Amino acid sequence: MRPQDSATATTTIAVTATEGSTSGRTATTGSTATTGSTVATGRTATTGSTAATGPTVAGGRIAPAPRTRGTLLALLGVVSFSLTFPSTVWGLESFGPWSLVAVRSTLAALIAGAFLLAGRVPLPERRHWAGLAVVAGGVVIGFPLLTTLALQTSTTSHAAVVVGLLPLTTATLAAIRTGRRPSRTFWFAAVSGAVVVIAFTIQQSGGALSTGDLYLFGALLVCAAGYTEGGRLASLMPGWQVIGWALVLCLPLMAVASAVTLSIEPVHLNAHGVIGLVWVAAGSTFFGLYVWYRGMAEIGIPKASQLQLAQPLLTLFWSVFLLGETLPLAAPLAAVGVLVCIAVTQRAKS
Questions:
Q1: What is the distance between the terminal CA atoms of the chain, rounded to a whole angstrom?
Q2: Residue of 256, 284, 226 whose CA lies nearest to 102
Q3: Is 22 helix (H, G, I), strand (E, B) or coil?
C-alpha cells in the first residue's frame, strides 16, 4: 500500500514510508496515540487528534503514579483505623458493647447505601456475593465486635500492639488465597516487624496475657480474611463499592440488632460517646475501609498490609493525646524498628 492510500481508509492505519535509503518518517492518521521513533532524519508527522502517552495530566498537574497513589490511600486508611480503638473507648462511655457495634454498622450501612443510590451503582454480579459476605463477616461485624469486647478488659495500648500482628496475618492469608508467593526478603521483614510488635506487647504486659487477648486474636483472623477478600474484590470493582455492598448486606441484621440491644443495654449520651460513635461508623468503617481497599487494589495486598505495622504506634499516640494514657518508654524504639521493616517490605519483590 502507498502512504497516500491510507488517508482514505475507514480505520486507523499507521504506515512507515521510507524515502531513499537514509531517511524515514512515521506518519500516523486517525485519532491514535503514537510514540513514533526517529530514523535518520528523525522526522515524525502526526495528523488527526493525538493522545499523548506518559503520566496523566489533570488540570495542568501530573497525576501521581498508581503505586504512589495506592500507597497514599492505604496510609490514609491506616490513619483512619488508628483512631478506631480510642473512638471505641469514647463510644463505650455512652453505649454498651453490643449496641455500639450494632449502631455503628447500621449508620455506616446507611451512609454506604446513600452513596450507592446516588451513584446508581448496579448490584454486584452473583459470583461476588460470597466474597462480600466474607468482608461483611470479617470487617463489618467480626472485628468491631471482638475488639469492642476486648476493650472492656484491655487497655487501648495493649489492644493496639496485639492487633499489630494483623499485617503478617493478612499477608499469610493473602498468599494462601491468591497463590502469590512474596520473596524471602519480604517475609523476613514482615516477620521481623511482627517480632518487634510481639516483643513490645510482652514488655508492656509483663509477660501476662489479659482475658481480652482471645477476643483480639480472633479479631486478627476474621479481619485478615476480610482484608484479603476485600483486596481481591477491589481489583474487580471500586473499593468503595466493596465496603459499601458489604455494609448494605449487613443492614437488615444490624438494624434489628440495634433495636434489640438499645432496649437492653443502658444508654448515657455525652459528647465523647457521640463523637466516638460517629467516627467508628463514618470514619473507620466507611471512609477508612474505602481508601484502604482502593489502596490495596493498586499496590497489592501484601505490601499494603505491611503499612499497617504503623497502626499500633499511631494508636498509642492517639491514646496519649485523646485518652490521657501514659506513653510507654519502649514506643520510640518500637517505632524505629517497625518503620524499618515497613521500608524493607515496600521495596521487596512481591
A1: 47
A2: 256
A3: coil
2 contacts 20 by C-beta, under 8 angstroms: no
Query: Which of helix, strand or coil describes residue 26?
Result: strand
Q: Which residues pair with 17 in a beta bridge?
A: 25
The C-alpha atoms of residue 176 and residue 109 are separated, in whole angstroms, by 30
Q: Average pLDDT in the 221-248 region?
A: 89
For 170, the 3-state DSSP assignment is: helix
Alpha-carbon span 308 to 298, nearest angstrom: 16
pLDDT tens digit string along 23-38? 444 444 444 444 444 4
Query: Within its chain, how far is the Cα of 298 from the centroid?
Result: 10
pLDDT band at 117 (very low <50, low <70, confident <90, very high): very high
State mean pLDDT over 300-312.
Answer: 79
Residues 6+ apart with CB under 8 A from 55: 62, 63, 65
- Give the predicted TM-score (pTM) of the model: 0.72
- Nearest residue to 12 via CA among 43, 34, 45, 36: 34
Instruction: Establish how many alpha carbons lie within 13 A of residue 251's alpha carbon, considering only the half-sphere containing its beta carbon.
Output: 15
Q: 254-288: string of b/e by CB count within 10 Å (b at 16+)?
A: bbebbeebbeeeeeeeeebbebbbebbbbbbbbbb
HSE-CB of 119 using CA atoms within 13 angstroms: 14
Residue 135's pLDDT is 94
Nearest-angstrom CA–CA distance, 333 and 302: 24
189 in Cβ contact with 130 (< 8 Å) = no
The average pLDDT across 100-119 equals 94
Each residue's pLDDT tens digit, 173-221: 887 777 777 788 888 888 888 888 888 777 776 676 667 888 998 999 9
* CA-based nearest residue to 108, from 120, 97, 116: 116
Coil, strand or helix at 254: helix
Average pLDDT, the chain: 79
SS3 44: strand
